[in-house]
């Protein structure tokens, strides 16, 4: 939904009545109802009417902050569940040797950088995933750098299914 806005000579934000009416219709409101929600007041402009949004910059900045918060929440959701599985599987594919085993250090580094997780979050999610999907992943003890899950140090991982 588009809403064209402009600036008056005094630097106040305005919306033309025709644009406000078009958007209001799409929202199932009247132009006056939408204007009230925006805190806009009608003003004569030449032969037409425009609505001055009294605190326009606060409205715009408020909407930007609201969008930023939504994006933040969505990014937080993205780093959970399915995306962790996908990033883990991609890391194993890229790092695996001829036997199919990948060093957990390389897998951890890839997933942590891809999803922006801490090392502790990675270990927690890996432990949860391995427990939930028994048999889908094989953890092998050994290796230079170990990741400890349930008291055991693992250095390699393989995806079986």
Topology:
Layout: E1 5-7, E2 13-16, H1 17-27, H2 31-38, E3 40-45, E4 48-53, H3 56-78, H4 82-95, E5 102-103, H5 104-115, H6 119-132, E6 137-141, E7 147-149, E8 152-159
Antiparallel strand pairs: 1-2, 2-4, 3-4, 5-8, 6-8, 7-8
What does this structure look like?
The chain starts with a strand and ends with a strand. Strand 1 (5-7) and strand 2 (13-16) form a beta hairpin. The strands form two sheets. Strands 1-2-4-3 form a four-stranded antiparallel β-sheet. Strands 5, 6, 7 and 8 form a four-stranded antiparallel β-sheet that branches. The chain is an alpha+beta fold. The mean pLDDT is 82. Helix 1 packs across helix 2 (31-38) and helix 4 (82-95) crosses helix 5. It is built from six helices and eight strands, in the order E-E-H-H-E-E-H-H-E-H-H-E-E-E. The chain folds into two domains: 5-74, Arc Repressor Mutant, subunit A (Orthogonal Bundle), CATH 1.10.10; 79-159, Arc Repressor Mutant, subunit A, CATH 1.10.10. It is rod-shaped and about 80 Å long.
Keywords:
Arc Repressor Mutant, subunit A, single chain, four-stranded antiparallel sheet, 161 residues, alpha+beta
């Amino acid at each position: 939904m588009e809403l064209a806005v402009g600036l008056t000579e005094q630097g106040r934000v305005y919306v033309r009545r025709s644009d406000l009416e078009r958007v209001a219709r799409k929202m199932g409101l009247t132009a006056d109802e939408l204007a009230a929600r925006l805190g806009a007041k009608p003003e004569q402009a030449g032969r037409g009417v425009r609505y001055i949004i009294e605190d326009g910059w606060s409205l715009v900045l408020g909407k930007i902050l609201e969008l930023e918060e939504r994006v933040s929440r969505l990014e937080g959701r993205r780093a959970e569940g399915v995306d962790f599985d996908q990033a883990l599987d991609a890391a194993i594919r890229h790092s695996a040797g001829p036997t199919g085993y990948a060093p957990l250090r390389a897998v951890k580094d890839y997933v942590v950088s891809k999803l922006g997780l801490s090392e502790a979050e990675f270990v927690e999610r890996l432990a949860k995933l391995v427990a939930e999907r028994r048999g889908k992943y094989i953890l092998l003890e050994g290796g230079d750098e170990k990741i400890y899950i349930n008291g055991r140090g693992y250095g390699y991982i393989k995806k079986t299914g």
